[in-house]
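User: Structure please.
Assistant: Input sequence and predicted structure:
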Amino acid sequence: MNKLELISALKTEANISKSEAAKIVQLFFDTMSDAMAKDSRVEIRGLCSFFVKEYKSYTGRNPKTGDKVVIKPKKLPFFKPGKELKKRVDY
């Protein structure tokens, strides 16, 4: 399912216009993104949680040349499915 399919499902289920459904979906994603940008955890009980993992600097290798390269510290979003979602997809 992509964003447009999610908007269509919300429009049909809630009996609202497509533009209203699009605003709601966009607000939901923007709010989640803003929270994660502030290092907050986003948890949707029974479905999943999103949080930011911090990775330290390390020495890697350029696969093309084999030269050592210093990888800078970084933060990346991380997704963890909930128990109910795992059961539902027969994990």
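The beta strands are 42-44, 48-55, 58-61, 68-71, 74-81.
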